[in-house]
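Researcher: Go.
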Amino acid sequence: MLDRKTLVLNRSWMPITTTSVRRAICLMARGVAGAVHPGTFEVAEWEAWIERGPEENDRLEAVGFSFPVPDVIVLMEFNGVPDVPVSFTRRNVYRRDGFQCMYCGIMPGVSDLTIDHVKPRSRGGTTSWTNCVTACVRCNSHKADRIAHSVGLSLLREPVIPRWPGGLDPRSLRERPVWHRFVPKATLTAALGSEASA
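Model: Structure:
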């Protein structure tokens, strides 16, 4: 539970990143952040959170006491918005594409996903956000070093550079609906598509 993600808001309540529950608790204990009650939007500092945190939150048990795990924290002083681009990594390409093959649409699991170059490297394609997609092993083997349409494949959607605040990738947002009320509608729509308006 200590490695689970907590949403971090700046002083203006803009989502800027995620952090581990472990670090969120440390920030709260140091007085740098307060926990946000997901239902009432009340901010509780360390002592108040431990004493009367919301009942619906998961709880961490320690010797002699327990306290609720913060789903969302707000920083007391920092009001910036870090402009850090999403790192181009295999895992982040998987996240952007929803762990789905961009040719056939299946979600086979990480062990059966690969990264495909839309324009093959042998034909001058680059390893970049706009030229790489997730593909299942079967589709990637079928396409090989050819252009997709020449072998009867087409992309479900064009690859783009993701614009997530740190840690707010589509899968994280899907798994943590309690964060949705703190994330701008445009970010939710970009990450979740039609799910965001449901």
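Model: The mean pLDDT is 86.
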